Amino acid sequence: xxxxxxxxxxxxxxxxxxxxxxxxxxxxxxxxxxxxxxxxxxxxxxxxxxxxxxxxxxxxxxxxxxxxxxxxxxxxxxxxxxxxxxxxxxxxxxxxxxxxxxxxxxxxxxxxxxxxxxxxxxxxxxxxxxxxxxxxxxxxxxxxxxxxxxxxxxxxxxxxxxxxxxxxxxxxxxxxxxxxxxxxxxxxxxxxxxxxxxxxxxxxxxxxxxxxxxxxxxxxxxxxxxxxxxxxxxxxxxxxxxxxxxxxxxxx
Length: 252
Known about the structure:
Elements: H1 3-17, H2 29-49, H3 52-60, H4 71-82, E1 85-89, H5 95-103, E2 106-110, H6 127-134, H7 141-154, H8 160-175, E3 178-181, E4 184-187, H9 190-193, H10 196-202, E5 208-211, H11 214-218, E6 230-234, H12 237-251
Parallel strand pairs: 1-2, 3-6, 5-6
Antiparallel strand pairs: 3-4
Helix pairs in contact: 5-7, 7-8, 7-12
């Protein structure tokens, strides 16, 4: 069996288990309005404190203020640039299968829209966190390669220590990463992009922002339901790719 046949088989298996249709036409007027509220609130700040790579990616994949993203349209743009696709799922999927999706340039995304009484906090991801927060960076070729490689390496983790290390690398980059741009620290991680409070904390006086060094990241524990008191700043996304290649060497 060729490598392309293996890829097709793996994706078909994942699709059968987890992937669903977005059913974009079923979104209500209120869903689109909630999306618009969230979009406007975050973009007002992100134009000042977000990585240019995120802002450019948001434009490239066609995110709009006036309506919930249609994944068919997003993927038409995204696939042509980096080969990534956002795929709709019902919710969390097992870690191993999630990483396998990443290894095949498929990003599982929930497609529900939070309610108006959950504008400021939602305990589980929704389409705003997953698509607005994550997917724009998938249009950047270096980040796209990093994330695919991360998925391939994380799917190979066998020990509890390796799993913990990969979780920390994901948390402090994909979810809560900071980057140095033009002499300023900017946000790029989805948890910061999609949350005003987390972004304000990350750039404020209460957060210890440290230079990104792989061993420091792997040694740093985190809690998911509190503001982060330690975060890491990369110089560019090449650092991320170098880090995951080093993890590949260690996990192999």
